[in-house]
């Protein structure tokens, strides 16, 4: 069989294998997204007339959108690097010879499967005005902090994010670390590299390709903290943790379809830009490595 | 001399790793132990939640009293939960009814699509996969309105189908299984093809069995995610009796606090069992999904 024939045969098989997924994916994701793009350019009155960039202008000018976007950016901007640094540290630790290594990894991964709602009560008890954290501060003669009604709420949410997601990233990093051949370290040692240089020039370099996937997954998961924020504080939490998802949910509840669609398109645009940048960076890095 | 020092360094590093593990386990352990307290003890420990102390009565130093171990071991909360609070049990089964079809459906649909992406060559393959990848990154709110309108047109509002439909076709499963299947050596499929096997046979007899860890990992991760669902039920379901337990648990107020921990534990149990059963697969599945195929 020639090459072209093989390709064609694959094409027909591919169509069959892809059909169920592609149909549903189209119906529930692509068509809705297309509709959203359409709404974002239409008039608010519902007449369906073309409104140009009016909705975008309104969204971008709205104070609550700006605040929500800034909050989401701040959260992801702090949360993802923090998560990656901490989980890399833990992965490096777990990569040594330790007692109880398997058990420790299990415990790190456990929060991944524990429902957010199941530990909501404990978080409440910790962060309430009369809660445990303030009791500790009181014991140290420090004043109370209203954790959920101040800028402290950002840290509370970050803590929950780290708690939930650190196990996932540790597993990913551990796999990357264990894939580095021991001979690389030997070569480095022979060339006189100390522990620090080995870490910088062998470990970190060869972990970097895994980093892109870790960053992507961590960003996706950083959007999911909306659940935690919602479970603790409802539709309108303290301003610092009023995320883009709160903003969009509330636009939905007030039936502002056009503005919501414009906000959604803006969000998709930024995520696509970020992801393309990461994927391109990864390819470049890989090419340089080889 | 060096040999004598080694167990010691190992011990020190172990202790360093135990600390974060203890911190991570703490909320789970506290939920478990608190579920074994009597309702009365819960009441007296956590009475101050969400209240302001009356300074005039000398209550400015009032705090909750978080305790690791109960004074009296009691299964009273669980008895309460089973006998007097059937709403939790009902919503527990709602969670099952919402999650199970999504997990089963997405796993099946995604396995088929992943086979095409990982093992077949066709035009536009990489571009299409990139679309799936991008869709995986999007938060639920992005397609919220059109999804709502489509569900309305199909008469699915206020029914589970409005949530299950989009859930089945989520992009995560396709992404994860494609990464996993890409690692299955092409030689296996080649050999089968030499023997005249078609793609249907290769998929069922070779790729699917070899992808078992990936499938198991996907099932655990999907279940964990769906079991947690909050946004979709809030938007699509009006009736309280159709809501999953994840939404209800957050609304446990002062009156219900006595059974709150037991309900929380009840909600953890299916996930905990699944996790312990499939942990090795979960780890292997996550690892493979991160390594570029």
TrEMBL record, chain A:
Gene3D superfamilies: MetI-like. It is a multi-pass membrane protein. Keywords: Cell membrane, Membrane, Transmembrane, Transmembrane helix, Transport. Residues 69-279 form the ABC transmembrane type-1 domain. Belongs to the binding-protein-dependent transport system permease family. GO terms for cellular component: plasma membrane. The chain crosses the membrane at residues 12-31, 73-94, 106-126, 166-187, 199-220, 260-279. It is found in: Cell membrane. GO terms for biological process: transmembrane transport. This is Sugar ABC transporter permease. InterPro entries: ABC_transporter_permease (IPR051393), MetI-like (IPR000515), MetI-like_sf (IPR035906).
């Amino acid at each position: 069989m020639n090459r072209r024939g093989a390709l064609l045969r694959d094409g027909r098989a591919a169509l069959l294998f892809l059909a169920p997924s592609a149909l549903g994916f189209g119906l529930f994701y692509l068509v809705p997204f297309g509709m959203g793009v359409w709404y974002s350019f239409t008039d608010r009155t519902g007449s369906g007339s073309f409104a140009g960039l009016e909705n975008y202008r309104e969204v971008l000018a709205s104070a609550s959108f700006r605040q929500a976007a800034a909050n989401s950016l701040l959260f992801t901007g702090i949360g993802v690097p923090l998560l990656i640094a901490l989980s890399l540290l833990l992965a490096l630790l777990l990569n040594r010879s330790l007692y109880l290594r398997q058990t420790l990894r299990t415990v790190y991964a456990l929060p991944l499967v524990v429902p957010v709602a199941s530990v909501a009560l404990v978080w409440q008890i910790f962060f309430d005005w009369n809660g445990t954290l303030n009791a500790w501060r009181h014991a140290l003669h420090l004043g109370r902090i209203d954790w959920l009604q101040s800028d402290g709420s950002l840290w509370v949410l970050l803590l929950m994010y780290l708690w939930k997601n650190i196990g996932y990233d540790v597993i990913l990093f551990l796999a990357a670390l264990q894939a580095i051949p021991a001979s690389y370290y030997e070569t480095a040692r022979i060339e006189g590299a100390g522990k620090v240089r080995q870490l910088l020039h062998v470990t970190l370099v060869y972990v970097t390709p895994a980093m892109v996937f870790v960053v992507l997954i961590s960003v996706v998961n950083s959007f999911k903290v909306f659940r935690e924020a919602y479970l603790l504080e409802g539709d309108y939490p303290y301003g610092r943790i009023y995320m883009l998802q709160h903003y969009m949910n509330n636009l939905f509840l007030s039936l502002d379809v056009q503005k919501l669609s414009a906000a959604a398109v803006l969000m998709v645009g930024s995520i696509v830009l970020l992801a393309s940048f990461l994927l391109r960076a990864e390819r470049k890095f890989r090419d340089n490595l080889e | 001399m060096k040999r004598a020092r080694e167990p010691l360094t190992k011990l020190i590093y172990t202790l360093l790793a135990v600390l974060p593990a203890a911190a991570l386990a703490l909320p789970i352990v506290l939920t478990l132990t608190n579920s074994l307290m009597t309702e009365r003890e819960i009441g007296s420990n956590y009475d101050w939640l969400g209240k302001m102390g009356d300074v005039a009565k000398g209550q400015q130093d009032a705090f909750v009293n978080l305790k690791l171990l109960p004074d009296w071991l009691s299964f009273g909360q669980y008895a309460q939960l089973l006998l007097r609070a059937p709403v939790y049990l009902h919503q527990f089964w709602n969670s099952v009814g919402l999650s199970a079809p999504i997990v089963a459906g997405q796993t099946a649909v995604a396995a088929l699509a992943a086979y095409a992406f990982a093992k077949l060559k066709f035009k536009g393959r990489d571009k299409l996969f990139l679309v799936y990848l991008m869709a995986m990154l999007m938060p639920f709110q992005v397609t919220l309105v059109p999804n709502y309108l489509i569900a309305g047109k199909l008469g699915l509002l206020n029914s589970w189908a409005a949530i299950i439909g989009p859930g089945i076709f989520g992009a995560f499963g396709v992404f994860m299984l494609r990464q996993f299947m890409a690692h299955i050596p092409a030689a296996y499929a080649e050999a089968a093809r030499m023997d005249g096997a078609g793609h249907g046979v290769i998929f069922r007899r070779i790729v699917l069995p070899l992808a078992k860890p990936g499938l198991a990992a996907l099932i655990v991760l999907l279940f964990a995610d769906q079991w947690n669902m909050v946004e979709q039920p809030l938007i699509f379901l009006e009736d309280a009796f159709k809501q999953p337990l994840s939404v209800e648990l957050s609304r446990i107020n002062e009156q219900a606090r006595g059974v709150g921990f037991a309900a929380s534990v009840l909600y953890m149990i299916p996930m905990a069992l699944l996790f312990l059963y499939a942990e090795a697969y979960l780890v292997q599945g996550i690892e493979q999904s991160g390594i570029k195929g």
